[in-house]
């Protein structure tokens, strides 16, 4: 009887611990699943667009993402994945720094851009220092992909 009670108490404690631990552990689990020194592909397999939406809060000061929304200090980013670099918005005045880069926004180029806009396109007017965390970048890319659909 006592043993039964103890088992029940322990499982309640375990449930409380699991419920209370929130984002930090979930993040650690995702990183573990991605394996040691994860490639961008490995990170994309565990990327979470909802978490990307949260990180995108940093971008909202300068960017809209809804279809047909107006440009702000930066261009509208609806459906940006797959488009030409500096090709997201027809109405927007891009710098030569960015428009002379060429190519398309695939996952690898977006990852490099978001790591350091200034290194990707020296002289760009995107005055954002970049996202140092590789998993946060993968989350934002997953969000950009989802919002483009
Ligand atoms: C302080 C304002 C600002 C912030 C914050 C900012 N951006 Fe930008 N972004 C810009 C500007 C300005 C440009 C245009 C750059 C140019 O023409 O050199 C730009 C361009 C871009 C482009 C290129 C679009 C295209 O049409 O090729 C992408 C993608 C982008 N930003 C993504 C992001 C993301 C994702 C974040 C958040 C992690 C972010 N930006 C944060 C201002 C900002």
Textual characterization of the structure:
It contains eight helices and no strands. The chain is mainly α. The protein has helices at residues 2-20, 22-34, 40-46, 49-55, 96-99, 107-115, 117-120, 134-147. The chain has a single domain (23-147), classed as Orthogonal Bundle (Cytochrome Bc1 Complex, Chain D, domain 2), CATH 1.10.760.10. Helix 4 crosses helix 8 (134-147) and helix 6 packs across helix 8. Residues 58-59, 61-63, 73-75, 77, 80, 85-89, 94-95, 97-98, 114, 124-128, 131, 140 line the site of heme C. The site of heme C (HEC) has 27 residues, from helix 5.
Q: What topology emerges from the helices and strands here?
A:
Blueprint: H1 2-20, H2 22-34, H3 40-46, H4 49-55, H5 96-99, H6 107-115, H7 117-120, H8 134-147
The structure holds heme C.
Keywords, please?
149 residues; mainly alpha; globular
User: Which outline best applies?
Assistant: globular
Radius of gyration: 20 Å
Mean pLDDT: 90
User: What top-tier CATH class fits best?
Assistant: Mainly Alpha
